[in-house]
Design a protein that fits this description.
Glycerol uptake facilitator protein
């Protein structure tokens, strides 16, 4: 007799967002934490791009594959999801992200064999041995998060080639990391930042606010850019046409 386990249609997207964000943390920051010495910044950037691409085609048809509160903010502002769904998505993303961070913390024996020295936490200045300061972080996180959200929302617009959204998003996230890892280890995703900061220690937690506030501002700006450029966006609720459907 075979056993079956079912999840309600209302819960399935939340589970997908939690699992997707957990996997993003395991592969993205995880590649730095476990193999930064072997992969370098370019390898880590590629890992981030590839994991988003993979998740887009794995859970995109279930939840839209936001796996990022800034992206969810953009979808809510564009009225593609309602407020209740947005809140549920963000909670699921945070839970999944912290689970991913915890798993990496266990693998690295409490962070003792972390290859980055800061558990891949975001930051600036002496905390991450970066010559860049808070002003640079402000510009990078707002501008590059805006780019990411603009691209992701654009994949939902009418006329966008079906099935190519995941490729566009994955390439964009990878390119963003190539450009900005030297500045602040690249956030553009509050959930990713929280996942590493809670296990990195007090310095990371003191600077965490910037990687929550600035990406969310960037997400709103990305939505504005989408609204300005795409005159006839798809206004469907839930998973928008063309967005990460594989």
């Amino acid at each position: 007799m075979s056993a079956s386990f079912t999840v309600s249609p209302q819960t399935r997207p939340l589970v997908a967002e939690a699992m997707g964000t957990m996997i993003l943390v395991l592969v993205g920051p995880g590649s730095a934490i476990l193999a930064a010495d072997a992969m370098g910044a370019l390898g880590v950037a590629v890992a981030f791009g590839l994991v988003l691409l993979a998740m887009a085609y794995t859970i995109g048809h279930v939840s839209g594959c936001h796996i990022n509160p800034a992206v969810t903010l953009g979808f809510w502002l564009s009225k593609k999801i309602d407020q209740r769904t947005a809140i549920g998505y963000v909670v699921a993303q945070l839970v999944g992200a912290v689970i991913g961070g915890l798993l990496l913390y266990i693998v690295t024996e409490g962070g003792d064999i972390d290859k980055t020295g800061v558990f891949a936490a975001n930051g600036w200045g002496d905390h991450i041995a970066s010559p860049f300061g808070l002003g640079s972080v402000l510009v990078v996180e707002i501008v590059f998060t805006a780019i990411l959200v603009f691209v992701v929302l654009s994949t939902t617009s009418e006329g966008y080639p079906s099935g190519f959204g995941g490729i566009a998003a994955g390439l964009t996230l990878g390119m963003i990391h190539i450009a900005t890892i030297p500045v602040d280890n690249t956030s553009v995703n509050p959930a990713r930042s929280i996942a590493t900061a809670v296990f990195a220690g007090s310095d990371a937690l003191e600077q965490l606010w910037a990687f929550i506030v600035f990406p969310l501002i960037g997400g709103a700006i990305g939505w504005l850019g989408y609204e300005l450029i795409h005159s006839a966006p798809a206004r469907s609720a839930g998973v928008a046409p063309g967005a990460f459907e594989g």
